[in-house]
Amino acid sequence: MDGSDDQALARARAGDRDGFRLLVERHGRSLFRLAHRMTGNEHDAEDVVQEAFLRAYKRLDQFEDRSQVGSWLFRIAANCAYDLLRTRQRRNRHLEPEGAPGGADMVTALDAGPDRLVAGSDVRRGVAAAMAEMSERERSAFALRHFEGWSIAEIASALGLDESATKQSIFRAVRKARAALAPLTGVSS
């Protein structure tokens, strides 16, 4: 566990708002990236992050010191995103207001020529289509593993799963991504 997170958490528990502010500054961007990949748009991602930090602040005394603060915050954010998506499903809305999960940051177009821009656009659409087919758990595990670079153990802790279930979720998500991208790569899945 990061010592500075521990110190910030201890300060926040003692009523020091600056301690909690430090946690928000350290983890806000990562939570936003996860929320954006899960919800598919910036507005909902901002709402999820705000709700996640609000819930965390209200539950500071419930944090168990045996886990990492970042994992705890990710789990809260993932649960907030799940809640939003379930509410959205009940209202029969679709997840594509600004584009599908995955976003434009999937392919970096540094010095990109027209052929690379077209290919990048095709890859973004393929990944977005694959992520739209993933369950909430698969999408979360996939995003944490492949976009955030988390270990299996970290993902399991953040999502409240055992490592076997985490690996299975990632495996299913990768299989869906490969199937969606197969026409672009010429490799059958």
Task: Describe this structure as you would to a colleague.
Helices cover 71% and strands 0% of the residues. The protein is mostly helical and 189 residues long. It folds into two domains: 1-99, RNA polymerase sigma factor, region 2, helix turn helix motif (Rna Polymerase Sigma Factor, Chain: A); 102-189, Arc Repressor Mutant, subunit A (Orthogonal Bundle). The chain is elongated and about 55 Å long.
Number of helical elements: 8
CATH homology group of the largest domain: RNA polymerase sigma factor, region 2, helix turn helix motif
The first-to-last residue Cα distance is: 39 Å
| Helix/sheet category | mainly alpha
At the fold tier of CATH, the topology name of the largest domain is: Rna Polymerase Sigma Factor, Chain: A
Shape type: elongated
- Total strands: the figure is 0
What is the CATH class designation of the largest domain?
Mainly Alpha
The appropriate CATH architecture of the largest domain is: Orthogonal Bundle
Assembly of the depicted chains: single chain
Largest sheet properties? none
What is the beta-strand fraction?
Answer: under 5%
Query: Unreliable runs, pLDDT <50, ≥5 residues?
Result: 92-118
Kindly give the count of domains. Answer: 2
Arithmetic mean of pLDDT: 80
- In helices, the fraction of residues equals over 70%
The gyration radius over C-alpha positions equals 18 Å
Would you list the SSEs in sequence order as H and E? HHHHHHHH
